[in-house]
Specification:
Strand order of the largest sheet: 2-3-1-4-5
CATH superfamily: P-loop containing nucleotide triphosphate hydrolases
Number of strands: 5
Distance between the termini: 12 Å
Number of helices: 7
Order of helices and strands: EHEHHEHEHHEH
Structural class: alpha/beta
CATH class: Alpha Beta
Number of domains: 1
Radius of gyration: 15 Å
Helix content: 40-55%
Strand content: 5-15%
């Protein structure tokens, strides 16, 4: 099983993805770990990434998904646009279940402002919301619910699908 946990920065992608990995005994792929240094520096300096910045990063993630395809994996990645999601699945033959974590700008900004040591400052959050193309083929979960509840609902959907 291949799973993409997606949404804007601060929505809880990594936390939910980690929980799924543990429950399903699947490897975890953290998209942030694949950003080149130039992307990280750009974001740290308050500059949003553009499509040209993201393309090599997405290609590397697609290669990683291809490597993990046989055993399955959970990818935590913003995957904000449909074309980004298409790039991610371009090399795999299995379907990938998309899980979209959605929440209000205010809630997510508060989360980002409270976390320490992350390269993504809250002043870039609006650019993520502006870029976001809500997926039509995803399981969508509102992050107003706590992440443990979301995790349990995802596992229930997986068992019933």
């Amino acid at each position: 099983m291949l799973i993409l946990v997606m949404g804007v920065s601060g929505c809880g992608k990594s936390t939910v993805a980690h929980q799924l990995c543990e429950a399903l005994n699947l490897p975890f792929i953290e998209a942030d770990d694949f950003h080149p240094e130039a992307n990280l520096l750009k974001m740290e300096n308050g500059q949003p990434l553009n499509d040209n910045d993201r393309e090599p990063w997405l290609q590397n993630l697609a290669l990683e998904l291809k490597k993990e395809e046989a055993k399955g994996a959970v990818l935590a990645c913003s995957a904000l646009k449909e074309k980004y999601r298409k790039t991610l699945i371009s090399l795999i033959s299995k379907p990938m279940q998309i899980i979209f974590l959605e929440g209000s700008f205010k809630l997510i900004k508060n989360r980002i402002d409270q976390r320490a040591g992350h390269f993504m400052p809250s002043q870039l959050l609006q650019s993520q919301f502006d870029t976001l193309e809500v997926p039509k083929d995803a399981w969508t979960f509102d992050i107003q619910n706590n992440l443990k509840t979301i995790h349990l609902h995802i596992l229930e959907k997986i068992q019933n699908s």
